[in-house]
Amino acid sequence: MSHKFKIGQHVRQAGISYFGNKSVTDGLFEIVRLMPDDRSGEPTYRIKSAGGERAVRESELSHAA
Known about the structure:
Layout (H helix, E strand, L loop, with lengths): L9 E10 L2 E14 L8 E6 L2 E6 L3 E3 L2
Antiparallel strand pairs: 1-2, 1-5, 2-3, 3-4
């Protein structure tokens, strides 16, 4: 599969996620790296916000409005 999002693009991660001890709901993030597909073939990304950086699957992201 090819990646839907590009480096530098702003995206939202819907639902409840956790950065350390902080809970982030519907957070705004920036794509910082395109990563290889996971075992199921889904593209993955490194995303960051003021609260930190993490790896996520493409299905967890949506375009920022």
